[in-house]
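Researcher: We are triaging several targets before committing to wet-lab work. For this one, the compound of interest is zinc ion. I'm pasting the protein sequence and the ligand SMILES. What I need is the predicted three-dimensional arrangement of the protein with the ligand bound, expressed as structure tokens, so it can go straight into our comparison scripts without reformatting.
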Amino acid sequence: MSLYPREIVEAIKDRSDIVDLIGTYVSLKRAGSNYNGLCPFHSEKTPSFTVFPDNQSFFCFGCEAGGDAFTFIMRTENLDYKGAIEFLAKRSGVDLPTDGREERHGVSRKRVFEMNLIAARFWRECLFDPHIGKAGMDYLTEKRGLPLSIIRRFGIGYAPNDFGALTAVLRKNGFADEEMKEAFLCGISQKSGRAFDMFRDRVMFPVIDNTGNVIAFSGRDVGGQDNRKYVNSSDTPAFQKRRNLFALNFAKNHCADQLILCEGNIDVVSLHAAGFENAVASLGTALTDEQARILSKYTKQVILAYDSDEAGQRAAHRAMGIFAKVGLDVRILQMQGAKDPDEYIKKFGAEKFRQLVKNSRTGFEFKLQSVLTRHDLSIPDEKIKAAAELCSIISRVYSSAEREVYVHAVAERLSLSEDSLRKDVEGAIRRNAKAGKQQESQQARLSAMGIRDKVNPETAGNIRAAAAEEAILGLLLLYGEHRKAVATGQVPLTRESFVTAFHRNVFTVIMTLEESDGGFDFALLGEYFTVEEMGRLARLEQARRALTDNGTSVLRAAAETLAEAKESYAAKEAPPVDSIQMILAGKRKRLKEDSDDK
Ligand SMILES: [Zn+2]
């Protein structure tokens, strides 16, 4: 469907930080958690151009230019979407595939998947062989206390302590040594030039993607002969460590509300065995931006269950910063009396662990810390700035009880009165709401005056429906939970619910991407919409972000308003149903008309 594989588009976007990128074109100043500058797309004296690092987007409140890194480059470098991808790929050092397939030294992903599947089956047979697999089975069942059912479900195996066992099996199946090396299943001896098994005397955890392919392995040493506790597949044509997580294929259906991130695979397997099917682990690396972004598509909240030692806590602190960038709510689990979740559950049981999850500390403490370190509190001006930033952060928290807790914490840290802080927070909430409403009503006024909305010309005749549609699309652009609610039919919305053609198209594209492999990503919209249309999408997103209440009830209310509005226009002809192909054709037509205009 896409011009380039979505992994590539996402990798480019992940490596193109929007503040860095736009900063090379526009001089930006920090304003709270965002950046402001003079808009490069219209002439102005006071900055109305804003860059939002947390969702990697920009928007100009003056001329409505907006979007993501790709849209920005399309506008400034005057390129199409494909050209912008290529421009940013070069800038961020991502190699673009020439034929749309990832291939290295002539070994395709497909060949690697085939080898991995054979390896997984072979190692599983070894584990269940009472003679060959004894060391591995003892480790799993006796030392770790795992039931056979969970060992089977995860497809765990055992790589025997033998230099040529797997290599021989793969050769018999027609694979060359060079291919096995590319798949990280064997190494080639420098001295003899002979192939040898990469994993030996290890319990093997297959890493499986969402479509069921075995993409890599993680091997845990059991014999104690190797001082490396874990060996993980390095990057292969079928696997990028920094973009994958262990057990996400199992957890993805159980983690809509909350997900538990651990350091080790064995913690994940123990947690699943104890009934926590929402546990995953990063693969032997520190958490990456890409992994955080992937998790943000599946869940609202991440509980960090890292090791309780100093290194683990440092890693947790670092991970919080990464999750904060992608806008995920993060909590830290404080385990006392055990070094990791596996040990904790063995010592104290699953129920106690459930309590820990419930009492985990919020990410606010982390944000508080980061604001405090940026300001010198001995200078009164700086203290006021810090307080203002924190009040603005608190004003975006939905729950008033939670806000109270934060107000208390900030008052204590800055030695300010709770009352005055509370007033500032309330002021910020009112401002947020007003900004959102103003934008909505400004748009309605313009429409009512019959001023032609170039992006969505049907707005003028359908003000009520168009406003409801904008609210719905803003919510769907922002929140995965709302897209899920629509995809599963919990909120009754279909293409036919929409009155205006532009909004119907946007809805169609969002939901088609949502239901595709890998899900929705703003970065993929550029293929379907022009830069002007992308600006509108950014505005819809920003309008929602400025509001405090973006829950499911708001989505439902907007859907009802839309249904009522539509009924009152019932006399009108039913709109045609647009397919993705028609939308793409429409984009081409609009681009052509634009260039004819010039
Ligand atoms: Zn502008």
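Researcher: Any quick observations?
Model: The first strand starts at residue 29 and ends at 31.
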